[in-house]
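Sequence in, structure out. Go.
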Amino acid sequence: MKILPAVLTITSAGFISAATEAAHQASRPVPSNEVRIAVKADYRTILSNGWPEHTPQFPRRGNPNTATPQQYQFRVPLRPEPLDAPRAGHGWWWGVALDGVPFEPGTGETWQNNPQSGWRFEAATGFLDLGLDEHHAHVQPTGAYHYHALPTGLIAKMGGDGTGMRLIGWAADGYPLYSAFAYDNAKDPKSALRAMKSSYKLKPGDRPAQEGGPGGKYDGRFTQDFEFKKGTGDLDECNGRTGVTPDFPEGTYYYCLTGEFPYLPRLWHGTPDQSFAKNDRPPGGGPPGGGGPGGPGLPRPPFMTALDQNGDGELDPAEIMKASASLLQLDNNGDGKLSPEELHPGPPPGGPGMPGR
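Output:
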């Protein structure tokens, strides 16, 4: 991957045919992957244009959007701390790959296009064609190319999965993200490598018959078709575990991607950094049930997201006691004060987003 200054490509908006768009893209200079990862003070910073090392082939069937370079400025803590309970994301990027492309587990597609229905389609289970490419990625209306599952091209460039533990990115809370293979014995780096298994399972039986709901058998087409069953796999509800890795020989908590639901983790083990907030659409893609991603809801102010450590939509006594420390997460310039811009940041570069991808 090339390490270059960030660039911004500005494209015009309009209604054009797929053929015209293809011709337009063919005449357009092909962007290159640009990412810069550095350690400064207590944070790791990731600056990128979100463009992968291959050329995204979009628009395509199931996804009408054109990929364009973005301007990302992510940061993650070098010494992440675990929360008392996992935290759900609310319209945030979950993390970022080493190539600078963000991860987003969930989708904006809902049953009958009704976010309030509580039924959100899954991207990687194959029931709804969302135009995922061979890298398990597609494009948002903003032009943001993003991964929904294992980034196969990136892993192939790193030597492939199954031949070693592959650090492929960072979660928004600072914990490392690995591909599917990890040590059989989490504490023994000499133990065999094997694909980690999720502890999420399909619910038995049929979806409850309710007015406006999809009904039918739990078959995996919706996020809410799954439930966490502790101890049935290798990983916890965040799709993570604690153990040694080649990059952390003393041990750490780390996440894994899996070949089955949830594919990408849906929860954070620690506190995500505000730089991953998208502030562009309602929550989507979290674990089944409740008011987390995948359920009904509206975007929340950043200060509420910072205070609500467990993501349940309420402030309990413990969260209120930690309010001062939590709010300091929003102090991006480190001056000890919260400006209006830090309390209510504008939309990310590239324009406002739209529900749907």
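Check: The chain has one domain: 18-343. Helices lie at 18-27, 152-157, 302-307, 317-321, 323-327, 340-343.
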